[in-house]
Specification:
Length: 228
């Protein structure tokens, strides 16, 4: 079973993962486990301080080394026999791709560090993080939403998470292309009809049409994928 250890000062946000949708059902089925860690629990002052001003000046605050160090040490001691891959969600990280999600989905344990403010002390990254991952070229208020996006993508690839075992295989990016268009009932609505190929009942013809649509859509919307 896959285990997530998540370091966050806003652990309650992860109810969005555990209480609803595919990820909630996967948790009920025992396909993964989630353990939340608050670095405030590893402070030693009455204010439970986890951030301080950056050296060199500048706006904002930086998450401190010592509370995060002790959080990582506690995580390492928990389930110490299970290999752990530690990720910091950061705009400076490598872009998250479906290929990376597939790699992560095969791991037994993943720790996700959710930064806040201006980020974390660089020494935390140097000593306790295996890789930095970004969900896009933009900045959000903290790492919780990126972490949940990564988790959802990984969870749905766990065997038994989706209703149909081939659903994940047909997603966009799984074969390097965007997904093809999809249609359902009614056959004709507002003067628009379902493509005849999908109504033919000819499996080879349908597969060919879908592949051609994938190529065309990718060429128009994401030609960089074809170049790669």
């Amino acid at each position: 079973m896959l285990r997530f250890d998540v370091i966050s000062i806003f652990g309650e946000m992860f109810g969005a993962i555990t209480a609803q949708g595919v990820s909630a059902k996967a948790l009920e089925r025992g396909l993964y486990d989630l353990v939340l860690w608050n670095p405030r629990d590893f402070t030693h002052d009455k204010h439970r301080t986890i951030d301080d001003r950056p050296y060199g000046g500048g706006p904002g605050m930086v998450m401190m080394y010592e509370p995060l160090r002790d959080t990582f040490k506690a995580i390492d001691q928990a389930a110490a026999d299970v290999p752990n891959h530690r990720i910091y969600l950061s705009p400076q990280g490598k872009p998250l791709t479906q290929q990376k999600i597939e790699e992560l989905a095969a791991l037994p344990r993943i720790t996700l560090l959710c930064g806040r403010y201006e980020g974390v002390d660089e020494r935390v990254i140097e000593n306790f993080v295996d890789e930095e991952i970004a969900i896009g070229d933009f900045v959000v208020s903290g790492g919780e939403l990126p972490a949940m996006m990564l988790m959802d993508a990984v969870i749905r690839l766990q065997p038994g998470a989706l209703g149909h075992q081939d659903s994940a295989k047909q997603d966009s990016f799984s074969d390097g292309l965007l997904d093809c268009p999809h249609y359902t009932r009614p056959e004709i609505v507002d003067g628009m009809a379902v493509p005849a190929e999908l109504m033919s009942g000819h499996h080879a013809q349908i597969a060919k049409w879908r592949y051609e649509q994938q190529r065309q859509r990718t060429q128009v919307r994401r030609p960089d994928l074809l170049n790669n």
